[in-house]
Amino acid sequence: MNSCVSLEINKMAASLTRSHSKATAEIPSFLALADSPSWQTARTENQILRAVPYDRWEQLEAEIPAWEAILDHNPSLSIFSTPEWLGSWWKAFGSNKRTSILTFAGADNSMMGLLPAYLEEFQSPFFTRLTGLRLVGDGTGDSDNLDLIVRPGFEKACAQGLVSWLKHHKHWDVCFLNTMPRNSRAAAALVRELDRVHWPYVLESFPNSAIELPDSWLLYVESLSPSFRPLLTRYPRRLAQRYQVRIRRCENPDELSRKLKILFSLHKKRWNLVNQPGSFGCRERREFYFAMGPSFLSKGWLEFWLMELNGVPAAAQYCFRYRNTVSILQEGFDPKFAVDKPGYALRAAMLKHFIETGVRRYDFLGGLAAHKHNWGAKPGAYLNLRFARPGSAGSLYLSCTNSMAKSKEWLRVHLPASAWNVLHRIKINFSKRQAASPFGLGA
Question: For the whole model, what pTM was predicted?
């Protein structure tokens, strides 16, 4: 890189770093986690952890007991941080990816932190190719609540160890840490460390939603809009008058494969209504469910329910339970029963069961939609963090994409709708050409 380009990158990176002080001030509750008294009490000062890299996922499998010990000690970590979820995802989607896994060990060699990550090239508007560092589970739209897997009290030490290791290993350009929980102390410590060493980063929020469940089914129903309640009470009774209704929870491993195929079919039928193939048109995703389902079932985490009407599969919901939370991952229904609303009846039966068995949170995961609000879901947010080394091609990429995002928002607000729609169609066509290119992996 010549000196002129290097100087320009440094100028843009410095500008980007300054802009983050303002950006991070908009989420003080997140950053305050790194300074909270409860966290400071738990940590010890001057911790020094040793970063241990792993080149293959199979090497990490020997560390699963230590990994699970961290999960036991850190109740804020979700099912998306478990070996069962991430290992199944890697088995299905990792064949064309390079692992870049780091563990952080204390003086006695015990694991205090884990970054399960991989490297993947992507094409940007400014460079032929860059290399992104992502958390295992990210990049396919399947995972939420991904996080740095850290034993409580070691967040700062792991953050310092990660930044130090990345500083001296330059096989990456941009680190993408997406869908992290807003209450992640490890993420807060990492942002504090990035501020301390003046690395450029972009911190954004992405919406999610969940229902905080009360102690009884009656209290839950009463909390809903009067116009929505009949869908949970009257419609299920009407369904039972019209059909022989059978609702079953999958508990037999021998039936899991067949029932997954039913889910795939119902999901496809649902999306075919709007001329879309649905999520399970992807072979790797089907393999992911076939790998993940049995391990979740053996752990007692799987909440896979199906409804039959007169012996015909009408609706399915694929959820999982971890600690006191149930998360809904996928669902589907047969459009020929749409007027009877079997999906509503199935979700109502499941929620009633969950409340009665001590579940306190029903998580719709990413995105906001009117139907989630109708069920009583409240909006929340994930954090997406991107960062790079100062003065690097990655920092230039961050600066440019951040400026483009601000310009896009200005255009969206100020342009006439017709002109905005033309630009949107141009963007879609460009994205399709990128996807068709050998390096069109996206960022």
Answer: 0.84
CATH architecture of 3-207+382-416: 3-Layer(aba) Sandwich (3.40)
**415 Cα distance to chain centroid:** 33
CATH superfamily of 214-359: Gcn5-related N-acetyltransferase (GNAT) (3.40.630.30)
Looking at residue 396, its amino acid is L
pLDDT per residue as tens, the chain (443 positions): 433 333 333 333 344 443 443 344 345 555 565 555 434 333 444 678 999 999 999 999 999 999 999 999 999 999 999 999 999 999 999 999 999 999 999 988 999 999 999 999 988 776 668 999 999 999 999 999 999 999 999 999 999 999 999 999 989 999 999 999 999 999 999 999 999 999 999 999 999 999 999 999 999 999 999 999 999 999 999 999 999 999 999 999 999 999 999 999 999 988 877 778 889 999 999 999 999 999 999 999 999 999 999 999 999 999 999 999 999 999 999 999 999 999 999 999 999 999 999 999 999 999 888 899 999 999 999 999 999 999 999 998 888 876 555 544 444 554 566 654 655 565 555 444 444 433 333 33
Start-to-end C-alpha separation, the chain:
23
Secondary structure (DSSP) of 84-125: HHHHHHHHHHGGG-EE-EEEEE-TT--EEEEE-EEEEEE--S
3-207+382-416 and 214-359, same CATH topology: yes
- The Cα–Cα gap between 377 and 210 comes to 5
CA distance 264 to 84: 21
The answer to whether the CB of 155 falls within 8 A of the CB of 39 is: yes
